[in-house]
Amino acid sequence: MAYDPNNIFAKILRGEIPAKRVHETEHSLAFHDIRPLAPVHVLVIPKGAYVSMEDFSAKASAAEIADLFQAVGEVARKLGVVESGYRILANAGADARQEVPHLHIHVFGGRPLGPMLQRAE
Ligand code: AMP
Questions:
Q1: What's the pTM?
Q2: Which of 21, 22, 30, 38 has the fewest C-beta atoms under 10 angstroms from its C-beta?
């Protein structure tokens, strides 16, 4: 999938639309999901133009990759879910129902999160 510079997270990164920011580093930005599925639901994104995790891991620098993972850990600490537990998730492509074609790691927490996936019948 080609990167679409008009996706909603690219607009947030350019400051064209607002976001409730939680954490920002040189290469990453974290902000609250607009339709939270848990008391804590934050999205952590790289600032670079990457569609998905395999795109990011193939093209990003080691510094960008380290920065994103450090940002996820910092978000978990900042939002107080380390003790209670949290879940990270990154959807990619149609089967995962990725809506926004800019890599984002969901961080969920603040309540028991239930099973990881439902079994296919
Ligand atoms: P995904 O299905 O993994 O692509 O998730 C996309 C997520 O982006 C969803 O959880 C949306 O609620 C969230 N989202 C869409 N637009 C915005 C926005 N403007 N600000 C924050 N989160 C958003």
A1: 0.97
A2: 21
